Amino acid sequence: MGAYIPPGWPAGVHPPGSEDFESTAVGWLLDVVPPDYRLHGVLRRYPVALAALARYHSKACVEGARQGYRAARTELAGALPPHAIDTVLAAYRKEGARLAATAEAVDLVEHALRGEVFTPKMNLPSAAPEPQNAEPEGTEPKRTEPRRTGRQSAEPERTEPGGTGSEAAEQGPARAKAEQKAAAPRTAKAKTAEQKAAGAKAGARRNSAGRGRSDLART
Q: In this predicted structure, what is the pLDDT of residue 25?
């Protein structure tokens, strides 16, 4: 089974760990850096050093392309017609994407030269969505209560014996009148008894006063 090649690996460079990996990596890195770098034999003897130089160079190229793209309209206004400036910006976008891909590939080659082993990243399956009515474990189930409508409430209405709810409300005035009629004779009797008691007390006082006057007359 061959070595795993990560996405973005440069074409022409053999897989990491293969027999020709290091030689093909050096040849590709020398094409990335300026041509004068080929004059330095130390870079061929130590491919990791060449990869580090190529990393700095490729990132600097990306940053230079970004700055040039941002300043193109200001720097070229008046020197180029508008349609030519648009073409320059399109070239910046195209070369910027290529330079960014090259910088990423240089990073991969450098990691491989340092002995790093690439492994495929497995995409974990997404968890199945929980049902909407699912409840966390360890909790009590919710108690569903009957839906109350109209004038119903959690506790029954407190009414007088003999009726509840609207029935009691309808019978209330009639019952009140009946109670008033029933209470009227009792009230009259109570008043009569009170009047008799008051009259008896007054008579007793008058009799006592009369006896007192008669006793004084005898003396």
A: 96
Facing residues of 80 across strands?
A: 77
Q: Where are the beta strands (DSSP E) in the chain?
A: none
Bridge partner residues of 187 (DSSP): none
Task: List CB contacts of 106: < 8 A, sequence separation 6 or more.
Answer: 29, 32, 51, 54, 55, 58
Burial (Cβ within 10 Å: 0-12, 13-18, ≥19) of residue 88: middle
Report the b/e string of 13-37 with b at 16+ CB within 10 A. Answer: bbebeeeebeebbbebbbebbeeeb
Q: pLDDT tens-digit profile of 10-64?
A: 999 999 988 899 999 999 999 999 999 999 999 999 999 999 999 999 999 999 9
154 residue type, one letter: A
The closest alpha carbon to 24, from 98, 103, 109, belongs to 109
